[in-house]
Design a protein that fits this description.
The protein is an all-alpha fold. The protein contains three helices and no strands.
Amino acid sequence: GSEEEQRKREKWRMQNAIDIATKEGTERGLKQGLKQGIEQGIEQGIEQGKKEEKVGIVKKMLNENIDIDTISRLTGLTKKEIESLK
C-alpha cells in the first residue's frame, strides 16, 4: 500500500497544482479582459461624444445657411450625411 499511497499523494499534488494554476490564470485573464473592456468603453464614449459635437456644429452651420459643400469640406462629412441632419 505504501507505493500506491505515494502515487495517490503525487497525483493529488499535481492536480492541486493544476487547479491553482488554472484559478490564477483565470483571474489574470478576467482582470485583463475587464481592463481592456473599460479602456474600449472609454474610447467608444469619447468617439461618440466627438460625433455628437460634430453633428451639433453641422446643424448650427446649416441654420446659418452655410452651403453643404463648405460644411463637407470643413467637417469631413459626406454631403449625404449632412443632408440627413437637415
